[in-house]
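re: ur question from earlier - yeah i can do the single chain one, its not a big deal. heres the input i used so u can compare w yours
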Amino acid sequence: MARAKKRSILLIDQDAHALSIYEKRFETAGWKVVRAKNFQEGKKKLVRALPDVILVDLHPLTESIAFLEELSKDPAMASIVCVVLTDVGDRRTIKEVESLGVSAYMLKGHSFPSEVIRKVKSFYEKK
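and the output i got, formated as tokens:
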């Protein structure tokens, strides 16, 4: 009997503490986790292997918007679920990021890790 492919997620966040928390939580939930502390490192990881999901923080804001714009224009990324988890909560930024095709925009201070995992899993299963 063939073994099911393990779901994979790329976590991009410059906050090492947040990366560590979400890495442990997603691994416990059965995900293969790849982490990146910035967008340059995230791009390199994407060249090596495409994950099923990308979970990204919006710091620094200009770099994150540019990164999400690149993703939205790349046909290879069309099947990847992209979720934003950040503390940037102004309406203008939310609207701009949502226009780039992210599946969800979640605020760190308003979401427990278990909620984030549940939401990511639901978007992954819908694709």
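The chain has one domain: 8-84+101-118. not sure if urs matches, ping me
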